[in-house]
Amino acid sequence: MGIPAAQVDVTEQITGPAMNVAFIDGQPTPAAHAFAKKSGVGVSQLERVTTSKGEYLSAKVTKKGRGAAEILAESLPKEIASIYWPQNMYWRKRGEVFVRPVRWLVAMLDEEVIPLEVFGIKAGNRSRGHRILANRDISIPRAGEPYVSALRDAKVLSRGAREQQIREALDAATRTIPGARWREDKNLLDTVVNLTEFPFAVLGGFDPDFLGLPEEVLVTVMRDHQKYFAVEDANHKLQPHFLAVLNTDGDPQGIIRHGHERVLRARFNDARFFWEADQKHSLRERVTWLKHVTFQKDLGSYYEKTRRVQRVCSWLAERIRDSGIAIRPGVLHKAACLSKTDLTTELVKEFTELQGIVGGLYARVQILDYDLKEDVRQAIATAIYDHYKPESMEDPVPRTTEGALLSIADKADSIAGMFALGLQPTGSKDPFALRRQANGIVKIIAETKLPLNLTQLFEYAREAYRGSAAEKKFSASVDYAEAVRSFFRERLEFYLRDVLGFKYDVVNAVLVAGADDVVDALARAEAVTQVRPSEDFESISAAFKRIKNILRQASETQKQVAASIDSNLLREQAERDLAAAIPQIAKKVEELRGGRRYQQALLEISRLRPAVDTFFDKVMVMVDDQHLRANRLALLQTLLKEFSTIADFSAIVTEKEKVQ
Amino acid sequence: MTSSKSNSPTFQDLILRLQTFWAERGCVLQQPYDVEVGAGTMAPETFLRVLGPKPYKVGYVQPSRRPADGRYGENPNRLYKHMQLQVILKPPPDDVQDLYLESLGAMGIDLRQHDIKFEEDNWESPTLGAWGIGWQVMLDGLEITQFTYFQQCGGVDLEPISAELTYGLERIAAFLQDVDSIYDIVWARDPETGSVTTYGDVRLADELQFSVYNFEAADIEKTWRHFELCEAECKALLERYAAVSKDRTGDGIAPARKRFPLLAAYDLCLKCSHLFNILDARGAISVTERVGVIARVRALAVGIAKAWVDQQKSGVISDEDKQEEEKPTAKRLKTEKVSAIS
């Protein structure tokens, strides 16, 4: 299907020994014979070529293209062995691993079996049907569509067909309830598509009394534990129904539906039991219980974490107090205090994915403190509810400033502790999902425009561990500040490039000039993206690259750069003009930069272009006179330094470079 | 629902049917191990038998105690002690998955009328230094079996591997009998009188009393002392074994190794594990202690597994004896074993 049957034959002319070595007295020497043999031709077929070095023996060699089956037989076992599985196993011998035991293997090119063997299994043209609906060997007539349809006949559908069949079955089952629809859930759909071979769906119901439990709890039980789709009405209100995706072709007697309903009823009963049992102890009472819940073995309990998070929250509240962003420190403090208490509840022990959410739900219905106004209580509940957000780049950030700060403080505490222990993520190892947490911090700051400095935040988060038992476990060999800095620079790069879609060179240029202030880096990236297409900016970028090269060469050849520009040494008009332009423009740029008017600042910088262009036209930098040279280098260095605070323009790939 | 309660198997029928099925397929039928364990995996018939090269097939019911899971007999779905039917197939036959499905048929489940799914569910027991890859088997949305390809046990890579099938008997019985509470499961029905004995009749009292003991009455200090005594004795045995096995000269050595009571050492290790579970349920183990205590039990289990492998070679000495513990290659394993009830 769509691949050539064989590689094309390749003919090449290869050069052999010199003529005067290959033939002596017109007779071929052993060298000629050896060359002929190596080339796979007879001595009489050898040719001679004349090169600049003299006459040489030559042969035309045709390499036969190998057949596709042969190539596949050789490469497929390697490909199969190199498939990445997050977890794999062995079953024949150690070191020979796959995700599950391999029992049969189909490898075909058109009608032919590709002769290969993997895990002791010889490839063939026989597969197996659905384990219950068609538990038999099936014969595959041909690769491609006939393969797909042979499997389909044996009740094993392709991925696309399964998804379609599931959607249709869900629609059909839901249609039996007027006005209802199933709640779209991409991840759940993916899961059930991959859990089934021949899917079908049934609609089940549950006692409407259970709708008295929070929707979050019901949906979690259905989705995460039972892999059921929720059903809602036109106003998105949850209905007392669910949809189960089956791996069989029907349920004519309702036996399967009955079974699923029974399981769900038990699960919901459990949830209700936990919900009610949890109300016997308030979140306030549970704060000290956190002493018995481990956060991380070396970082101590959640009680200690709570205290640290509260301190970081206070610090954060201080930071943003003057920024004009409204914040209620009391709400933040109380929310931080209670944020982890739901870890002691039965409901969260059972449904761990509801951490935070359960705390928020309980806070909504409990007395959190005496004399709390209702709106304050709700604000505390919301901050707790949201504080694990965002769980992914698609997940929204916390809805309130208090929630945002609590989320940042919680994540910063985890990252700070783990980095201080020397347990930063490496490669695919990230057991505490620190990358996700750091991405979360970046996203929150970017979207809420919080004026926060990452270096300071992490200095303070580290400071919050001061004097703790955990601190004794901290690694002495780790450069904490540097590790956190480069980690966040990576996260910010990921966010700007992969999430927001900025060009990689813009991102590089911007982050070189500073990666500490997320909001600021974002504003600079936007400004650079805006001005980047202009001709003046292109030209400035090219000039900055040139300047950087000159300075690098100067440094490599140990040429001195003057400490400051000496105006007496400015001989040429062009360099005097440039030297004069720098402070003028720099002043304006600084003003604009101070006001974060980056686009105007960049336009201002691009006004340097005529002066810079003329300079490079008329002035030679690397002259022999070392004073002149040192002064000119100082001029360029000043230029670079003064105007690289928004972005490092030399990192921008210009149109000219792209063409090359 | 067409199935009627009266023709569905009783709890004891279910056990008999499964045992018969596996006996017919060559399994030794063992009896429950008589030391408290948290899961069928911990019984020596699994923990020790999966080690070493010798093929083995065994099936047994194992009452499994999990003190923290007790609910005073008040929760219809949760038990302090549940019953697992454990099957070990070493090595697993190629058609092990089909065999398993057949066993469901033997229990009276018509597969054509139900929804069976194999959902990825990998298993790890840090306390036993054991892990494996496998599935939880779902029957109409109910987890009825944990199906594991055992990879490592007691920190020792398994060669050959074993398939471990752990059936949650209460769940399956409640499903087959279509009852909502475990305590309503018909355990036995008198063929003459038709009179019924329920799960509640048989077990409710010990659910209640052991919940009281584990959550309220267990003497923390004495339980700790039990733990420490068992641990000390187990360690002492392991040290003695090390001395015996190191000395590989002279005629009396092979018999001395062979008769060495490692099985008794393993019982002591199981006792430690159970005592730890009681202390944990009693709320007597602090955060900082917890990890450490688990590591202590693990050290015993791993020590015994290694010694057992050595002992099984009964006198054959090779470099393999020094085979180092290997780290599992897998990540993100789920640390819970199937608990028998929904």
What does this structure look like?
Chain A is of the alpha+beta class and 660 residues long. Chain A folds into four domains: 10-63, no CATH class; 159-278, no CATH class; 293-329 and 383-501, no CATH class; 528-659, Orthogonal Bundle (Isoleucyl-tRNA Synthetase, Domain 1). In chain A, 51% of the residues lie in helices and 11% in strands. In chain A, a hairpin with a 2-residue loop joins strand 2 (23-24) and strand 3. Chain A starts with 9 loop residues before the first strand and ends with a helix. Chain B is α+β, with helices and mostly antiparallel strands and 342 residues long. Chain B contains nine helices and ten strands. Chain B has helices spanning 11-24, 44-47, 96-107, 169-177, 199-217, 220-246, 253-258, 262-281, 287-312, and strands spanning 28-29, 56-65, 81-90, 116-120, 123-125, 130-139, 142-153, 156-168, 186-189, 196-198. In chain B, the strands form two sheets. In chain B, strands 1, 2, 3, 4, 5, 6, 7 and 8 form an eight-stranded mixed sheet that branches. A two-stranded antiparallel sheet of chain B has the order 9-10. In chain B, helix 1 runs antiparallel to helix 3 (96-107).
Strand content of chain B: 15-25%
| Rg of Cα set of chain A | 35 Å
> Briefly, what CATH class of the largest domain in chain B?
Alpha Beta
> Low-confidence parts of chain B lasting 5 or more residues at pLDDT below 50?
316-342
- Averaged pLDDT of chain B: 89
The level of helicity of chain A is: 40-55%
The backbone outline of chain B, from C-alpha atoms, is globular
Note the gap between the termini of chain A: 37 Å
* Largest beta-sheet characterization of chain A: 4 strands, antiparallel
**Number of β-strand runs of chain A:** 19
Reading side by side through the largest sheet of chain A, how are the strands ordered? 14-16-17-15
- Percent of residues in helices of chain B: 40-55%
Query: Could you say how many structural domains of chain A there are in total?
Result: 4
Rg calculated over all Cα atoms of chain B: 21 Å
Number of distinct helices of chain A? 26
Please identify the oligomeric state: heterodimer
Tell me the number of structural domains of chain B: 2
Task: Please tell me the CATH architecture of the largest domain in chain B by its name.
Answer: 2-Layer Sandwich
**What's the helix count of chain B?**
9
Shape of chain A: flat
**SSE order of chain B, one letter for each helix or strand:** HEHEEHEEEEEHEEHHHHH
